[in-house]
Amino acid sequence: MEEGLDLDRVNAHLENADATEVVKWAADTFGSGLVMSTSFGIQSAVMLHLVTRVVPDIPVIWVDTGYLPAETYRFADELSDRLNLNLKVYQSPISPARMEALYGRLWEQDDVGALNRYDQIRKVEPMQRALGELNATAWLAGLRADQTAHRQTLRRVGRQSDRHKVYPILNWHSRDVYQYLTAHDLPYHPYFDLGYTTVGDWHSSRPLMAGDESDRDTRFRGLKQECGLHLPQTDDEAKSLDSSSL
Questions:
Q1: Which of 22, 49, 57, 59 has the fewest C-beta atoms lying within 10 Å of its C-beta?
Q2: Which domain range does residue 97 map to?
Q3: How many domains does the chain have?
Q4: In a domain, 65, yes or no
Q5: Domain CATH number, residue 67
Q6: Per-residue pLDDT at 1
Q7: CA distances from 16 to 20, 21, 27, 168, 171 (A)
Q8: What's the whole-model pTM score?
Q9: Distance (Å, rounded) from C-alpha 153 to C-alpha 234?
Q10: pLDDT averaged per 10 residues in sequence order, the chain, 246 residues
Q11: Is residue 245 part of a domain?
Q12: Is 227 a catalytic residue?
């Protein structure tokens, strides 16, 4: 059914749909080709709960960079058990120790090119491999328009490379997230209580500070906002992922 989707028509149809309706539409449209991703970040329980209520056995892709805080690994175990997730864990074939021996501590080099190389090795390659091995035709992700300038350009349904991307909570704000977590008695990541509004690798995340203009300023040492997972791999659109630096 997904072949030849008219994205303008689809987005007009889903414009006023709530998040659960968007997930149901995606499940009906893409069937066994539908997957979702999670980072087990601050608010990840929202999407994991929202989606698995509709599609309990959906493959949940988690890219483990090998540099996540200990609290993230424990949070992942907690949510996986509680929600009975069909979790698919993917990692780079290059170990953290090998990567550092070959390229140094890329996150310390104050260079966007070094960060892009890090993201390609530890995040983008494993995710692309996961999507291929799982025969994914569509990917549910918890991006919100208020997070970055790039995400403000997204629609609820789009395409990334040769797959569709669906963003059920694209129009949500922090209050919507809080209300959903409270209504369903779901946990935040433990770092929320330490002042973090978003968390990834231990070396590239910090608490929100008074001078930050957005949550994403707390990531990647303020040098960029996107890690590349949610950017199409084209010259025009992958502005924060320069594959020529690999």
A1: 57
A2: 7-240
A3: 1
A4: yes
A5: 3.40.50.620
A6: 46
A7: 12, 10, 18, 11, 10
A8: 0.83
A9: 16
A10: 80 95 98 96 94 98 95 96 98 97 90 88 95 97 81 88 93 92 93 78 69 55 48 44 28
A11: no
A12: yes
